[in-house]
Amino acid sequence: MARIGELDLPASGFSCSxxxxxxGEGKSEGGVTAGNITWSxxxxxYGHTHPTGRKHGPFTDSSLIRAVVNGVDSEGNExxxxxxxxKLSAEDMADLIAYLKRIETDLDPGLTETTITxxxxxPTSGALAExxxxxxxxxxxxxxxxxxxxxxxxRKIELKIAEAGAGGAATAAQNFAHKExxxxxxxxxTAGSDPQFAALARTxxxxxxxxxxxxxxxxNPANKYLFYVLPGVAEQARSLVNFAAAQPELxxxxxxxxxxxTTLGNAAGNAAEQQAKQAGLWVTDKFVxxxxxxxxxxxxxxxxxxxxxxxxFFGEGKEQTQFLNEAAALxxxxxxxxLGALSGRDLSxxxxxxxxxxxxxxxxxxxxxxxxxxxxxxxxxxEKYKIAPRHTAAQLSAFAAAKVFVEGLTRSGRDLSxxxxxxxxxxxxxxxxxxxxxxxxxxxxxxxxxxxHIVSFDPAKKEFTPLGWVNAY
Length: 473
Description:
By secondary structure, the protein is α/β, with parallel strands linked by helices. It contains 15 helices and 19 strands. α12 links the parallel β15 (310-314) and β16 (335-339).
């Protein structure tokens, strides 16, 4: 508890850092100057003379305890009334003194007075190596451009690359963070290792900003150090369900759910089933298929007897194309729902191009998300740093993650720490990166764009029609 005048109030509302600064260096707040409480300053042998004229000698452990508890300095003089008097246990007081003795050098890893070191986890080989390289080009250019303008509060951002080798990306990131003293990881590819990265973020208290994945690892309570920019397949599936449930002709109708027994398929299918119960959508038939035994016509014939009006299908590229072809040939069901992230390049049924079914897809982003201002900024960056336009989606994802990271640094101010940075990102509301949907984070929200754009597709005209953004929750 803290005593203010004659009132006893929760001490959590009167943190030491609120007046004395995150590192105890002292600052002025509301016309009151709070002193420097770093240990080297408190024990100066020649004592202290304050702006009010009050003078006293150096503090000791016991005299500091009296100052905090009784509100008197080392000579017994009353401290300012703005200084709360705290009720502390002996153990808490010992902890406070121990911390004050090291606070001057207790900066978070990767943080100095002139630099902020960030990491980027990239695969060194395989199909994703080139995608990772495209991301690195954008991040390196974006941060260098920030540094050329003086950095963030005179700190330069130093980007270091963690190469994910045979031991796994998460293991590489952990070893790299310890070796290089990383303040945070920005962007990168975490697909396939999302639970491991989440555990690393939580146990090591390392912020991860905008990792690119279709499987954001969400926990309850939320992992405070994870900030995903775009939705995964689960969030997109939930948005599809919410869209369908909002259509009067579909909410009470029978619905079928089909998905593959794979990591992505199960994530989307399970999320859709859970959301359907919450949204009042009636799922009467469900079929989970093994990819190696996929039989689109067999599944459709088995489910057709249920007479569902709508069907959600979460399979990948070729499976979806085959399923769409067979559904078009049967002329059933009336409404088909897919995830754009899992779709093949051609959505038009080859067997029945005049298909009359309604086709709806969920997409994490659409072209209209990209503003003219952001386009100009991104192109200027490409030209200045000779960035080859490749894997555009990955490059824009890295661009968005970098902007979110810098926004968090800016909101944190000069007294930067991981804790302050995380708290600053929690205040982002409808933040515009210019290349993604607007982002909102909070203590219980770790996906900035928690929803999806719903788009209808006309197979005959091969035209997409945006129907709007739908939240996942």
